C-alpha cells in the first residue's frame, strides 16, 4: 500500500483512496478503542468518529505516521468517553451480553484469531486482566494497549498520545507494575511463572 499516494489522493477528494486507508487501520483502531472502553458499541462509535475526523482534517496532516495520527484521534475519543463515564458512571465492571446481562468473561485480551473454545480458566484470567486494565488511569491504559497489545513502537505511541518518549516509557513501566500487583489478587488463575516469588507455593 502506497500510503502517501493514498493520502494525497484522499486530500484531493478521492473517497476510494481514503476508504483504503480506513480498511488498513480500522481493525487496530477498533481493538484500541474496545480495550480502552470495554464496550463494543462505544468502541465502534469512537472509531467511526475518529475516521470522520481524520477525513475532515486530512488537509492538516503534516506527514509522519498516519497510523499514529489516526490512533491519536481514537485515543482522544476514548479519553472523552471515559471522562463522560466518570461524570455519569453507568457501565458495570462486567461486560453485557446480547440480553443485557452481566457476563463473567471479557474478550478484550483475545487475539485477532480467537480459539473456537475457551476454557473456564482462560475466561477467568481474561476477566482478571480486564479488571486490572480498568483500574489503570486512562493515560496509563492507553500506553499499555498501544504498546503491549497493539505492538506499536514507542515513537508511534509518543506521537499518538502527544507525550514525550521518556514519559511513555515511564508510564508503561509503572502500568505494568500496577497490572502485575493487581493480578496477584487473582494469582490462583496465573501460570506459575507469573506469580510473585515467595507466593507461588501458598
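Sequence proposed for the structure above (202 residues):
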Amino acid at each position: 500500500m502506497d500510503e502517501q499516494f493514498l493520502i494525497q489522493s484522499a486530500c484531493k477528494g478521492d473517497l476510494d483512496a481514503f476508504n483504503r486507508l480506513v480498511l488498513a487501520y480500522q481493525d487496530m483502531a477498533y481493538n484500541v478503542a474496545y480495550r480502552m472502553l470495554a464496550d463494543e458499541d462505544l468502541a465502534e462509535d469512537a472509531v467511526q468518529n475518529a475516521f470522520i475526523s481524520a477525513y475532515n482534517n486530512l488537509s492538516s496532516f503534516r506527514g509522519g505516521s498516519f497510523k499514529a495520527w489516526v490512533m491519536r484521534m481514537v485515543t482522544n475519543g476514548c479519553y472523552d468517553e471515559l471522562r463522560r463515564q466518570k461524570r455519569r458512571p453507568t457501565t458495570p465492571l462486567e461486560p453485557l451480553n446480547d440480553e443485557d446481562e452481566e457476563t463473567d468473561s471479557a474478550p478484550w485480551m483475545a487475539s485477532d484469531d480467537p480459539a473456537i473454545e475457551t476454557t473456564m480458566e482462560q475466561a477467568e484470567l481474561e476477566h482478571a486482566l480486564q479488571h486490572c486494565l480498568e483500574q489503570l488511569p486512562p493515560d496509563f491504559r492507553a500506553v499499555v494497549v498501544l504498546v503491549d497489545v497493539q505492538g506499536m513502537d514507542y515513537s508511534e505511541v509518543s506521537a499518538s498520545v502527544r507525550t514525550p518518549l521518556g514519559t511513555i516509557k515511564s508510564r508503561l513501566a509503572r502500568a505494568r507494575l500496577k497490572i502485575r500487583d493487581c493480578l496477584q489478587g487473582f494469582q490462583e488463575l496465573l501460570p506459575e511463572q507469573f506469580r510473585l516469588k515467595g507466593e507461588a507455593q501458598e
